[in-house]
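I'll show a typical protein example:
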Amino acid sequence: HHVPAAMAGGADACTGVVEKICNGYGFIQLDTGEDSMFVLPKSCAAFGGEIPPVGTRVVFDIVIDAKTGKPRAEGVRPAEDFLAPALSNPHAGMRSGTIERDGPNYGFIAQDSGEEPMFVLPLSCGGQIPPVGTKVLYDVVQDAKTGRLR
């Protein structure tokens, strides 16, 4: 079975975004663009043993599953626990903050920069705003309707 280049290079951790959850397991889209990585809830202890919501940025290790012999994600944790050097980080220039309010229709991010809280829509988070207290990385865009940053 194909072993992702991210693992072959001896890198300690891989990064990606939770792409899909179905039947109690999930898939993480690797930042390298390679095949999605299979993940089980038990590999997500940092998220209370549950696969984090679709759109959540995560860091994980790759292990070979003893049963299937195929690679899978292990030790899945929030991406902010892992700070990559800016050179290898495709998300350099992104802002960081913490979800301070979440609702069904919108939420706010407390920006690490100390600026005013940033408005966020569920659509920008894969359909669901992460729980209050979740550290997040994000880009700021200008809302086409309001002209405001979000």
Q: What stands out?
A: Residues 1-11, 83-89 have pLDDT under 50 and may be disordered.
